[in-house]
Amino acid sequence: MNHIRTFVIWIFLFASSLSFGQQTKCDSVLSKFISAIKEKDSKSISKMVNYPFKRYYPLPDIKNDDEFTDRYNEVFDDSLQRIIVESDVHADWTEVGRRGIMLRNGLLWLDIEGRLIRVNYESKGEHDKRIGLIRQEKVLLNESIRDFIEPMFVWETKKFRIRVDQTGTNEFRYVSWRIGKNQSEKPDTILTQGELVFTGNPDLILINGEIIYTGRGGNHYFLFKNGEYEYECRVIVLGTMKSPPGYLIVSKNGKEILKEKVIRNIRN
Questions:
Q1: H or E stretch including 11?
Q2: Residue 191 has pLDDT above 80, yes or no
Q3: Residues 6+ apart with CB under 8 A from 215
Q4: Using DSSP, how many helices (H) and how many strands (E) does the chain show?
Q5: Are 130 and 117 in contact (CB under 8 A)?
Q6: Which of 100, 132, 133, 152 could form a disulfide with 58 if both were Cys (CB 3.0 to 4.6 A apart)?
Q7: Do β-strands 93-95 and 101-103 pair in parallel, antiparallel, or remain unpaired?
Q8: What does each C-alpha distance from 216 to 20, 63, 120 come to in angstroms?
Q9: Can you tell me the distance from the alpha carbon of 99 to that of 95, in angstroms, rounded to the nearest whole number?
Q10: What is the SS3 assignment for 63?
Q11: What is the pTM of this model?
């Protein structure tokens, strides 16, 4: 009995020391990041970023240190910097297992090593630039699909080029072409009245300072129905280093008949 009691105590002490060590590392990672933001040290922060660093379509992703430094003030405007600098390491940040560490329920994510992996916030500068790019993009599209509010993404899989746009309040449109065609050509498939579904528990994603949608980490999927067929575009925002941007999954009468991973995000 004494041996058992001693073993249980040893396990408890080991787990406690491990938890303390993890918390100490987490505190150190956050302190380093917050300090760099406070000093507006864009060069140091650029070394902490996991590239490519994704921004809201059709803004181009940030590919390297130099691009990040050039666009630093667009991503981290005064409002976001103030939120980070005034944050409390223990009250405002949460470690979410292997997914990383999040600020305020998902406003910003670091991995457990302290690399910046996601900012779910859009400054006014980014917003204005994105709206300008949307106007330019509409001119290049086939006239049958120029009427939309917001573009969600444009993907390529092995067989298809896929575009999803928001066309109304909680309404989305799926458009696809066979590989080899471009977006100025008439689409092969157009599906409307799509549904946006988020996976996981809610959190906040801020656009231009306003809450526009929820979903922990941002992972979600768009679901479109066409008779006995369902088309699911599963978007991976927070995944592993090997995760693709997403998957196209087609089902017939509830049975999966096609699953293709996204090879790349494209523009036109």
A1: helix 2-38
A2: yes
A3: 198, 199, 200, 202, 203, 205
A4: 5, 15
A5: no
A6: 133
A7: antiparallel
A8: 26, 25, 11
A9: 8
A10: coil
A11: 0.78
